[in-house]
Amino acid sequence: MLTDRFGRNIEYLRLSVTDRCDLRCAYCIPEGFKGFEEPAHWLNFDEIERLLGVFAKLGTKRIRLTGGEPLLRRNVTELARRIAALPGVDDVSLSTNATQLGKMAVDLKAAGVTRLNVSLDSLRAETIERINGKPVLNQVLAGLQAASAAGFAPIKINMVVMRDNADEVDAIVEFCLQRGYVLRLIELMPMGDTARKMGYVDLQPIKGRLQQRYGLIDKLLPGGGPARYLGSADGRFSVGFITPLSQHFCETCNRVRLTVDGQLHLCLGQEERMDFRALLRDGASDDDLIVAIHAAMDLKPERHEFREQPQKLVRFMSMTGG
Ligand code: SAM
C-alpha cells in the first residue's frame, strides 16, 4: 500500500496517454498552443505497462486513461486491454470528449474499460463552439448513444461550470435525468491564464438550489473520486459536485497523475513531480522503480492553493491530464 506523509492511501493513478486534443476547450488548452510533447518523449505501451505493473504491485487498484483526448492515441484500446490485465488493477476507466466514441465504444468495452466519463459543457451548439472550440455537439451526442449501446452504465457527464454556461445547469440536469446519466458539476480550476479568464462560478449556491428543487439527499457512489454526490430518493438520478475551490477535498486525495512523457505529478495544483521516463530509459530495475515511487509519495503536497494563489500555476490542464 502506498501512503504519503499525511497518511493518505494512494491507490488511484490517472494516466495521460496524450497531451493532444481535437478540441480547444478554452479553460484547458489555449487556441494556437504549440508546446506539445515530442513523440520521442511519449512513454510507449511497454514502458507504461511495466511502470503501472509496479504501481499495481504497490496497491494501485484503479487507473483512469485521460489526456488531452485519450482516444486520439493510436491503439489506445490495446493499451487499455494491457492495463486491465495487470494483476491488482480492478478498475480501468476513461475520460473523453466523446468525439471519437461513436466508432470506439464497442472496442473500449471489449478491452476492459469499465467506466466512462464524458465531457459535456452545454447543449447549445453555439456555446459548445465558443467554449470547446469546435461545433461538435451532434458528434458528442452520437458518441454518448454509442457508449450506452455498447453497455457502458452508468455514464458520467462532466460539466465544468463557468460564466458562459452557468445558466444551463438545469437543462443539463434534465438531460441526464431523462437518459440515466450521472451528472458531475465541476468548478473551474485556475490552471494557466486560459482557465483564469473563463469566469469562475461557486457551485455551493447551485448545489443548494438543485437539492431543494429535486428533493435530493446525500448519496455515496463508487469511483474513489472527490465528488460529493446528491441523489433522488428513488435512486434514478445522481449529481456530483467537484468543488476544489469552494470546498477542497485534498485531505482525501488518493491519486497521482502520470503524464504522456512519464512525469509523475503528485498534485494537480502544485509543481512537485518525479521523472519516471528517465528512470525507465536509464535501465532502472523494478526495485529501483519501487524505491522511486515511495520517494515520490513523500513529495506529495498537503494541498493545492488554487484559492490562495490562483496565479501560481502556469501549466495548462491538458499538459498534466485532467
Ligand atoms: N479530453 C478528455 C475529456 O474531455 O474528458 C480528457 C481530458 S480533460 C482535461 C478531463 C476533464 O478535465 C474534462 O472534464 C475537462 O472539462 C476538465 N477540465 C479541463 N480543464 C479544467 C479546468 N481548468 N478546471 C476544471 N476542469 C477542467
List keywords for this structure.
binds S-adenosylmethionine, 12-stranded mixed β-sheet, 322 residues, alpha/beta, TIM Barrel
Question: What secondary-structure arrangement, pairings included, does this model have?
Answer:
Blueprint: E1 12-18, H1 45-57, E2 62-67, H2 76-84, E3 91-96, H3 101-111, E4 115-119, H4 125-132, H5 137-149, E5 156-161, H6 169-179, E6 182-187, H7 192-196, H8 203-214, E7 217-219, E8 228-231, E9 238-242, E10 255-258, E11 263-265, E12 273-275, H9 276-281, H10 286-297, H11 317-320
Parallel strand pairs: 1-2, 1-10, 2-3, 3-4, 4-5, 5-6, 6-9
Antiparallel strand pairs: 7-8, 8-9, 10-11, 11-12
Bound molecules: S-adenosylmethionine.
Residues 21, 27-28, 66-67, 69, 95-97, 119, 158, 160, 186, 188-189, 191, 195, 317-318, 322 line the site of S-adenosylmethionine.
Q: Could you give a short description of this structure?
A:
This protein is an alpha/beta fold. It has helices spanning 45-57, 76-84, 101-111, 125-132, 137-149, 169-179, 192-196, 203-214, 276-281, 286-297, 317-320, and strands spanning 12-18, 62-67, 91-96, 115-119, 156-161, 182-187, 217-219, 228-231, 238-242, 255-258, 263-265, 273-275.
